[in-house]
Design goal:
With 258 residues, the chain is mainly alpha-helical. The protein has one domain: MetI-like fold, CATH 1.10.3720. It contains ten helices and no strands. It starts with a helix and ends in a 13-residue tail after the last helix. It comes from Paenibacillus solani. InterPro entries: MetI-like (IPR000515), MetI-like_sf (IPR035906).
Length: 258
């Protein structure tokens, strides 16, 4: 009962916004071209699903986001472990990576297109670039936040480097790593939008851009809402695994949590 109440509370604000939006649209307080009502957007969503167009574009976008996240996230995790584990690696690599981290997607997207063309390679690499840094930074910080006394214990137990990583560093860094995964997934969807808006013939980003050209605002809203829902769904999956694997973590959850 308590879990159901918490879920309903989470949906309270979105429901109030949608109801207010719908009422304002029905009363003629909104320009239907610039801001269609939720009911009109829903009808457009049903139409796009029934024709199979939305499902097709969503499948393409999901595949791109998954490949980009797996590539960038795995490299970010490996780099975070390496740099976090080695002071020399930090001095050598981290300054350059931090400089690259500040480059916005929109600034480098044209360069990726010039280098790799309009095909899938440029899109996946752009997504991977964005997914790399949240996992890299959080893994690095997670390792560096491990209590130094634990490393002394590991030396006494004569842990090999592999045992040190597997039995000490990774478990102690898991909260930060999961945070990095969640942030990387969010950035992956952001990078996907930029990649598909810059040049694509399929995908939700392409659907939004094509609808914008013809002022089909309802289709634009459908694409935006789909991105939001898929992003929330993927984040919830990671959060579910995080809650299962980090049950031992007794962290503060708010003064009003019962």
């Amino acid at each position: 009962m308590l879990k159901l109440t918490n879920v309903l509370i989470g949906w309270l604000v979105p429901i109030l916004i949608v109801l207010t939006w719908q009422i304002a649209g029905v009363l003629g307080l909104l320009n239907p071209i610039l801001l269609p009502t939720p009911l009109e957007i829903w009808n457009e969503f049903v139409l796009l699903v029934s024709t199979g167009e939305l499902i097709s574009h969503l499948g393409v976008s999901s595949w791109r986001a998954l490949l980009g996240f797996l590539l960038g996230g795995s490299l970010g995790l490996a780099a975070g472990i390496w740099v976090g584990f080695s002071y020399k690696a930090e001095r050598l690599v981290d300054p350059s990576l931090q400089m690259l981290r500040t480059l916005p997607h929109l600034a480098i997207a044209p360069l990726f297109i010039l280098w790799f063309g309009f095909g899938e390679t440029s899109k996946i690499l752009l997504i991977a670039k964005g997914s790399f840094f949240p996992l890299y930074v959080n893994t690095f910080l997670g390792i560096r936040s491990v209590d130094n006394k634990l490393f002394d214990v590991a030396r006494v137990l004569q842990f090999s480097r592999w045992d040190l990583i597997r039995r000490l560093i990774i478990p102690a860094s898991l909260p930060n790593i999961f945070l990095g995964i969640r942030l990387s997934i969010g950035v992956a969807w952001l990078g996907l939008v930029v990649a598909e808006l810059m040049g694509a013939s399929s995908g939700i980003g392409y659907l939004i851009n094509d609808a914008r050209s013809f002022s089909w605002t309802t289709v634009v809203f459908v694409g935006i809402i789909v991105f939001a829902l898929v992003g929330k769904f993927s984040d919830s999956i990671v959060k579910w695994f995080e809650n299962r694997l980090l049950r031992w973590q007794d962290s503060y959850k708010g003064a009003d949590k019962r």
